[in-house]
Amino acid sequence: MIRCQCEAISFRAVLSKPLSVDICHCLECQRQSSSAFGVSAIFPVEGMLPFPESIQPHVGMWTRKTDSGCTLECYFCKTCGVRIIHRGLLPDGSSQPTLTVKGGCLENLTLKDARHIYTRTARVPVPEGSWPGPPDEY
């Protein structure tokens, strides 16, 4: 189940568990999470967007350009302000095949096999084998 803090947004993920989990140490995730890193669970876009009609009135969206020239759609709860999902759009406007659910919004998320990414700006120690930038598939 995916929920914001006030539970105005609540819906089921398309899969019972994410494809992968990333702990991102980039400066944007640090700012967005007001912490040393952000946690994101990766899911396919198909079946996750558009949001169910019942919650659409509660969802806002903010966009920003990324360093790679893509656009990031940042979906949030209009009531409590919690970020829910990020989806990347390629320079031609088409959707990337996956999106990220913010880790704190996903019930029973485990960080056991999470990857540490963008560690060149990490503020905390990271495990060996972490990615200084994006993983290869990004």
In round numbers, the mean pLDDT is 95
CATH class annotation: Mainly Beta
Order of helices and strands: EEEHEEEEEE
Helix vs. strand class: mainly beta
* Beta-strand percent range: 25-35%
- At CATH level 3, the topology is Metal Binding Protein, Guanine Nucleotide Exchange Factor, Chain A
Low-confidence spans: pLDDT under 50, at least 5 residues?
none
The rounded distance between the terminal residues' Cα atoms is 26 Å
Overall shape: globular
Oligomer: single chain
Whole-number count of domains: 1
Q: What is the CATH architecture term?
A: Beta Complex
Number of helices: 1
Q: What is the strand arrangement across the widest sheet?
A: 5-6-7-8-4-3-9
Q: Can you summarize the main beta sheet?
A: 7 strands, mixed
- What is the gyration radius calculated from CA atoms? 15 Å
**Strand runs, count:** 9
Kindly state the percentage of residues in helix.
under 10%
Protein name: CENP-V/GFA domain-containing protein
Family: Belongs to the Gfa family.
Pfam family, one: GFA
Domain CENP-V/GFA: 1-119
List keywords for this structure.
Metal Binding Protein, Guanine Nucleotide Exchange Factor, Chain A, two-stranded antiparallel sheet, 1 helix, lyase, metal-binding, Mss4-like_sf
Characterization of this structure:
The chain is mainly beta. It has one domain: Metal Binding Protein, Guanine Nucleotide Exchange Factor, Chain A. It is 5% helix and 35% strand. The protein has 1 helix and 9 strands, in the order βββαββββββ. It has one helix at 27-33; strands spanning 2-3, 10-11, 20-24, 38-44, 59-65, 71-77, 83-89, 95-102, 115-117. The strands form 2 sheets. A 7-stranded mixed sheet has the order 5-6-7-8-4-3-9. Strands 1-2 form a two-stranded antiparallel sheet. β7 (83-89) and β8 form a beta hairpin. It is globular and about 45 Å long. The mean pLDDT is 95.
